[in-house]
Structures are given as structure tokens and as C-alpha cells.
User: Fold this.
Amino acid sequence: MNNDQCVCTRVCSGQPLPGEADVMTKFGSFRCSDAIEHYKGLSEAEKTHFRGKCIKLGFKSLAVVPIRYKEHIIGVIHLGG
Assistant:
């Protein structure tokens, strides 16, 4: 597994995986009200694309919102609860 590979880095790069459509907004934000259940529902191959640190820490609700300046993503706001 690539330790840099997670939804956070994909939101920051603007390159979500094709299978993430159900947890991504049309403007590129990740939002999930039950990340633990979402992660459990992934295949073993899909799980390799997530570090899962937030889930291991017990965060259930997650949002990763890109911060844009003109046409560039310059960072993200990462919220967990």
C-alpha cells in the first residue's frame, strides 16, 4: 500500500477514483456520514487506496473539501467527527 494514497490526497489532487462517486460531490468534495461502514463495504483491493487513519481513530463523519484559488486546488479542509 502507498502510505500517501488516501481520499485526502485524491481530493487535493482533484483525482478521485471512479468508484468513489457515491461519496464525492460534483465539485470534488468527499463527504461521508458513516465512514466506518463505508470502509467495511469496500473490497480488499479498494481498501488499499485508503490509509484508513481516520477510521482507525474512530471518526465516523468525514468531509474533505478542496480549497480552490482560480483553477487550482491549493489545499483541503479536513473535518472528522
